[in-house]
Amino acid sequence: MSAKTYAARESEIERRWYVVDAADETLGRLASRIVHVLEGKHKPTYQPNLDSGDHVIVLNASRIAVSSNKRETKLYIRHSGYPRGYKEETLGQLLERRPEEVIRRAVKGMLPKTTLGVQQLRKLKVYAGADHPHQAQRPEPLA
After folding, report:
1. How far apart are CA 105 and CA 100, in angstroms?
2. pTM of the predicted model as reported, rounded to 2 decimal places
3. Which positions ≥6 away from 89 have C-beta within 8 Å?
4. Residue 105 pLDDT more than 90?
């Protein structure tokens, strides 16, 4: 008896486009749904070593919801490497300045920290408003 395991090739992977409305959605719960699709775990042909995921378009990023008082307490910290190069800003400040970045960082933190994760993150498109330039791809709403 010889059972063979099916292994999908890169050329056999079929990519679809999905659109998500982030208005009044909780940040972490939305990010985990997006990561599931970007990694391709919703497909029966999922392989952890291949990028078999789909493209995701996120709309209304500026209207994302967060629980508790995270708008004031959650900090995004970075350092330039130079003296006094420490910078921090709260979630509320980042939402005002660049609302797309909040969702992108949440999704990036859930993806693998490898070149595969970078490849999967490229398939994420985030927009602050309700319009997007990807009508030609005929995106479907993400269930």
Report:
1. 9
2. 0.92
3. 75, 76, 97
4. yes
